[in-house]
Amino acid sequence: QRMDSTLHYIHNDSDLSTNSSFSPEEERKSKVQDVVPQALLDQYLSMTDPSRAQTVDTEIAKHCAYSLPGVALTLGRQNWHCLKDTYETLASDMQWKVRRTLAFSIHELAVILGDQLTAGDLVPVFNGFLKDLDEVRIGVLKHLHDFLKLLHVDKRREYLYQLQEFLVTDNSRNWRFRAELAEQLILLLDLYSARDIYDYLRPIAFSLCADKVSSVRWISYKLVSEMVKKLYMASTPTFVVDLMNELVEKFCRCHKWSGRQTFVFICQTISEDDCLPMDQFA
User: Fold this and answer.
1) Which of 80, 83, 179, 229 has the most other CB atoms within 10 Å of its CB?
2) Rounded to an integer, what distance in angstroms lies between the CA atom of residue 12 and that of residue 196?
3) For the chain, which residues make up each domain, given as ranges?
4) What is the phi/psi pair of residue 34, to 5°?
């Protein structure tokens, strides 16, 4: 309470309220709020000024991006209009480190802003990050479930078509990217219907099960077993039957020993995690 009253006092201080360093045009454009001293916010917003970045600190935009969720939380969603332009400027910054910083925190910002502002202002930025460099995309991927669960069902379904794109990376040796995708898909099973899982997530899971890197394959076995469990509990039994038939056809009868080995490992995971009743498993 003392801090609030102090901030209120500072904000109403005549020295600050009559700050003449801004032209009338700039004053009209300045983002007005009453949570923190306006001069403090104006100072923060000026961090994205290119001339400041060149003369003060080349990393200043990155620091600004790192602090943005905290500033948004402090100001509250009712004052998001103060930060929106700055956020969009940072999201299109030439330095990938700045965009990466925002990509790692966009799910936190979505919680602060709520459904409507997220759909209107964050989803376009999120979509841009999906097409960015791998260093930026990984920030989105690591919190894919956290972000998508905040969206409405219809909006969430639109991303089913884009999940396949995560299998393609700038560097094919970047196996951790695919391992993270498998981890996120396990979480995403709770967000989608049985038909969506079968139609969109199943092909990705099967592709990951055949990955060249064993660490990716091991997570993918868990993904497939969880998929079997989810589809078995669904109201339509045909999905799990078709999935199991495809497992037999694709892996059990594979002409490569590695494919047949994959089938054994998937069966092991299904059995250990009690994903199916034993009679169904048999």
Assistant:
1) 83
2) 55
3) 29-151, 178-281
4) -130, 25
Residue 31 backbone phi and psi in degrees, to 5: -85, 110
Residue in 102, 83, 105 with CA at minimum distance from that of residue 91: 102
Does residue 65 surpass a pLDDT of 90? yes
pLDDT at 191 over 70: yes
- Give the Cβ contact number of residue 211 at 10 Å: 18
pLDDT above 90 covers what percent of the chain?
A: 66
Instruction: Report the topology of domain 29-151.
Output: Leucine-rich Repeat Variant (1.25.10)
- The packing angle between helices 96-117 and 84-91, to 10°, is 140
Across the chain, what does the average pLDDT equal? 86
- Its pTM surpasses 0.85: no
Alpha helices in the chain (DSSP H): 2-11, 14-17, 24-29, 38-45, 50-55, 60-75, 84-91, 96-117, 123-130, 134-142, 144-148, 153-157, 175-188, 194-196, 202-209, 214-232, 238-247, 257-272, 278-281
Say what the pLDDT of residue 260 is.
Answer: 96
What's the gap between Cα 52 and its chain centre? Answer: 30
Contact predicate 148/188, CB 8 Å: yes
Yes or no: say if 206 and 245 are a contact pair by the CB < 8 Å rule.
no
